[in-house]
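Q: Hi! First time asking for a complex rather than a single chain. Here are the components, and I think there are two in total. Is that enough to go on?
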Amino acid sequence: MRKYLFQLIGVAACLILAEGQTLAKSLSANEIVHRSNQISYYAGQDGRAQADMIITDDKGRKRHRQMIVLRRDIADTDELENNAYLSEQKLYVYFTHPTDVNKMGFLVWKNVASNDERWLYVPSLDLVRRIAASDKRTSFVGSDFFYEDISGRNINDDHHELIEITNNYYVIRNTPNNPAAVEFKYYKMYIHKETFIPVQVEYYDQKDELYRRGKTLKVDTIQGYPTITEASMENLRTGSSTLMKYTNVQYDIELTDEVFSERYLRNPPQQFLY
Amino acid sequence: MSPFPRQNLLKYVFILFYAYLLLASFGLVKWELNNSMEIWFYENDPQLVIHKKTLEEMGEWDWLAVVLETRTQIYDSHFLDELKTLSNRIADLDHVRKIISIANARGTYSDSDELEYRVLYSNNLSNSGSHSAEFRQKLLNNPVFINSLFREDQDKRTVILIQDENAFNEGGPARVQLVNEIRGIINEARLVENFWIVGTTALNVALNTFSLKDVYTFYPLVFGICIFFGWWVFGNWRDLLVSLSIISAVVATIVSSMVYSGHALNMVTIMLPAILTSLSMANVVHIITHFHQLRVNKPQNSLMQIAAQVSKKLWIPCLGSAVTTSIGFISLTFAGIVPVSQLGIFGALGIFLGFLLTIFVAPLLLAYLWRDNADPVTAKSYSLKTFAHNVLAKTTTTIAINSKLIIILFGLLAISSISGFHALKADTSYLSMFKEHTEIRNAYAKAEESGFSTSNFRIYLDLQNGLEDPDTFLALDKLQKAIDLLPEVIKTVGPIDAFKEIDRAMAKDASWKSDDYQGYNRETFAQILFVGELSNNDDLRDLLLHDNKTAQLFIFTNYLTNNELIKLVSIIENLISTHLPDGVLAEVTGVPVLWATMDQHLIGSQINSILLVTLGIGITLLLITRSIPLSMIGLAVSLLPILSIIGLMSWLGIKLNMGTILIGGIALGLAIDDTIHFMWHYINERCEGIGVHKSLEATIRVTGLAIFITSIVIAAGFSIMMLSQFVPTVNFGLFTTGAVLLAMFADILLLPAILMAFHNKLKQPSPPLLPSSKPGLTKVEIEDKSISRN
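A: Yes, that's all I need. Here is the structure of the assembled complex.
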């Protein structure tokens, strides 16, 4: 009897384990990436955050940038099914520090299927200029983060492969569909299994050498959304790094579309910035 | 009691010596050549400190330029496509940081109504004439490109500017490889007719390459000369083996000690082995000649006794000549230039080691090698015998008859040479170090003929209030404009140029004017610079750090000699103090500036060098002759050749530079050697009661032969340097050879002439320093004996 009971317990344990594996395996690489993308860039209908950026060069010299970032998704759903969440977005960046560049504004209309559109406002000249946006893999305001890191990379630009499942992470290898358009050969993402937050991203060059690494340093749950509140990006070739901290994060603050226009570049929307 | 071991220990001395030689040679395989920029300066050199700080802040790189002569117009899209490919391939090379050519030059534009920092050339352009003209106009619209990448009046020449990681302490192989790889890439271009590579890196590569050629030329040739002369002089393998062994031991020890003490060879110290070979050979000749003479004169003595007697007899004059030659080398440390100081220090060590081995080891080796051969060897060479009998034998008589004439002739030579001193100048042109028609000279000539810059230096700027401060910005703007007006300056490039480009692209409307920035406030400057940061303008980053406080301004010129550059730097420093406000620190720096400041001390150090050596020689002569008049005569005879050579250089317009600075001290140290031997032998003869004429006859016959042989050997060794690709090394070899030969004639002709002409006014020489020497006779007794012998 006892022997039979033990056997039953053993079989049950195996079944539970197998089911767990099956569940995990049931998510494809694409699905995992989409979930991660949605959490990282599409949480809530809109959002606001104060971003503090400390850029450290290879000599240890630091410079500080502070800005308010407003985001609005065009799609009015967060549903993953059929990738419904995936839509155009609009970003408004309002610089507050250093003081010389206070009130400079930067507007981005992120398009899924084509190049972004960008504008810059120079308050001292009261001048709005459109900025060419053909290359998303260039530095964002002189930091080690690229525009693409801030606004998100088009999921369809890469082939995604689930190469490993650890206790805590999905490890996804992403290979570009158009290698000539990027500087990396592939990148690996370590995505947290529960929150789908990308905890670490590693970029490898043509010689399979790691040359760039992004890390999530802190995650808070804000208004129910797992939110990266501290992240870093290191350029292993140059020795520089950038630390980004997000504070005063708010979601669903009912940003209107008109905020993301030239008019509001010249006249910043104070009710959302402070 | 003889200080030397018994006969049966000679074998062990022989074995030990060759074991030592083998051991000393181990270091030879590890020798390295390092002609990096860093080797020229002491760690605490103020100019070096500034330059290193600049490199640390702004990045360790420098400009290399490749001037292309094209088969088609440079605006032709076929050429531009090829240029783009070339640029990309060069950009992929190791140690290349960035490439700028007209095919990939970037700038900030807003021609499509979008502000963008992008490449100007697009290979979507067709090859129609209108598009070529349009592209040309776009280039002309950007002042930064004009005269740096192309010239308005040249449509078949353009420049590729390369930022190479020119590590200051990088020895050379990486640079050589880089230049060779660039050459290889451009050689494959179809539409490039010719190309020339210029810049500090290219110059440094040429220095390295030619240094290496000198290594492979000097050593075998000098050694070959030693073998040739050794056989000519000795006529037997035993003496040749001893002489070559001593030479090898000296050279191997010194080069190995340099290697193990972390000193790589460089374009200056590369001459050391050849110099030591010649000098060591000369000393050994004296020992061997005397060894065999004693065998002839004292056949009853054993070889060990003869070895001891040779050492005893010659150690003082050999020590004297070693000391004076060492002083000549040590005097090079006055130059304050690291490689020259290294040559001095290691040269002096080598001389002293040569003395020790020559005096204490060579006689023992000779005793061992000749132990089974009873037949004493005299001069085997027929030509030498003939010379000794026919020429030297008659020399004394000739001198006696013509002593006054000889003195007058040499005196005239001295006066005419010394009168040229007023024309003596110091100026180094590293470019002129290479012979005409060498590739590097040709490259510079072609590049300058095209109107492009071949050299550059920079101003490091510490802008306390930041470039966005209007006062700072406008002051820097005025400074740059003032520098641009200087005739030697082809182009300046600084952060203000990048700013103006962005400002131009940001132009609000048609009312914008290029000097609108004169009325900008701090915020406007800061925000426009921020636009540069937002657009990832890396050209701006090369010139201005992100803090907007640390910057550099490049000044592009033709190649300037050190004096010309020093003069230009002085003018620029005046402009800096005139235009820049107090809160701005500006330092003119760059590798050419570093090299130029080295020259500042050349003349002074050359004078100090000669003074020190003169003092050392004077003291040594005084100790040896124990007579002030005799030491003064010896000094004058030794100084004459050197002063004549320097005077000749002045008349010929040859300037003091890195190579010729070596001549004074070394040549003087060499010239005195034979004078010491001559004086030593003469005094010994006179102290044995022999008259002036007979003493001089004996001295000339014995020492004159040795002087002749050693001078020829040294002259031949130094003359090898005339095969160098470096003009200063050629000059060093040529003029030192001349000095040595002139010193030989002075010792054989002038010195006896003076002694003969003034012997009545000179007291009897004091006995030599050896306690075994016979006491000297009185002046009257000597004169009596001289009369009776004559």
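A: The CA atoms of residues 647 and 748 of chain B lie 22 Å apart. Let me know if you'd like any chain examined more closely.
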